[in-house]
Amino acid sequence: MLEGRSLVEPGNFSLEEMEGLFNLAQRIEEDKGFLRQSCRGKVLATLFFEPSTRTRLSFEAAMLRLGGSCLGFAEPGSSSAAKGESLADTVRTVACYADLIVMRNPKEGAALLASRCADIPVINAGDGGHHHPTQTLTDLLTIKRLRGKGEEKLRDTLQGLTVGFCGDLKFGRTVHSLAKALARYGNLTMIFISPGELRLPEYITRLLEQQGIAYREIGSFEEAMPVLDVLYMTRVQRERFFNEEDYIRLKDTYVLSPDKLEKAKDDLIILHPLPRVNEIAVEVDADPRAAYFRQAKYGMYIRMALISSVLGVNHA
Ligand code: NCD
Prior knowledge:
Blueprint: H1 15-30, E1 43-48, H2 54-65, E2 69-73, H3 87-94, E3 100-105, H4 110-117, E4 122-127, H5 133-147, H6 154-158, E5 162-166, H7 173-183, E6 189-193, H8 202-210, E7 214-218, H9 221-224, E8 230-233, H10 244-250, E9 269-271, H11 292-310
Parallel strand pairs: 1-2, 1-3, 3-4, 5-6, 5-8, 6-7, 8-9
The chain binds N-carbamoyl-L-aspartate (NCD).
N-carbamoyl-L-aspartate binds near residues 126, 135, 235 and 273.
C-alpha cells in the first residue's frame, strides 16, 4: 500500500510496489479513460527551487489528467524563500493547502527534511546531486516496456542485460538513483563511462560491490558500444561545477552521433533523462533505438500511477 507514503529515494518502495506501479502505468497508457477524475478535489503542490521542464510539467499533466488541481511555484524567487523563509516553514505551510507535495531543491537531503516536516506525502523531484526517484521509475518503466516480453516482470527483463551509463556520473542524480535501483534486481552488468573527474561517487560503487553486481568503469564509449543493451546518456551538470573552466573542458567529452552507433546492437535502447545539451547529436533522434522522447511520455504515465496510489485511489 502506497497510500500516504513519501518517496525520497527509490529504495523507499519495495520491488513489488514498483512492479505494481509499472502495471498501473501500463493500464493508464492503454486505457485513457482509466482513473480519469479519480483525484477530483485533490490538490498537488509543485515546489521547484531549481529549473525543470519534464518533471514539473509531467507531474502537473498527470494530476490534471487524474482530475485533480495543481498549485505551486516554478522558481524560488517568486516564493517566500526569497525573503529568507526556511524550507521547513515553507513545507509546513504548503501542507496546509495541498494533499501532496512534489519538490525539487538544489540541496542534498532537502526532500528527506521536507518529508519529515510535512503531514502529507512528499515526492522528491530531485535533491541536488543526490536522488531523483521518479526519473528512476520512468527509466525502469521505459526499459520494461521496450525490452520486456509480454507480462514478464522487470526482474526477468533485466536478467543478463548490460546497462551503460555515460557522461556526468559524479553529479548526475538520475544516474545515482537508477544505478542503485538496478542493483536491487541482481543479475545484470553495469558499465560506467565517464572522464576520471566525473566518475561515480564511491558510496555507489561500494554498494554495487556489496550487492555483488558486476560493473566496470571506463573512459571511452566506443569500447563498450557493441555489448550494451541499454545506453543511458547524461548531460554534464553545469550547475554543480565549482568553476566554469572545468565545465567547458569536460562538457563535450562524449557526443553520441550515428557513426558511433555502427557497432551497437540492433535492439539497443538509448535513454536520456533530458534535457539534452550536446551529448546526443540530433541526427540520432531518427534512429529507432533512440527512446528518450518515448521515455519522457512514460514519465507522465508513471507519475499518474504514483500520484493516484499515494492519494489512496482504489484501482480495482
Ligand atoms: C534531470 C534532472 O533534473 O536531474 N532532468 C530530469 O528531471 N529529466 C537530468 C538533468 O537535468 O540533466
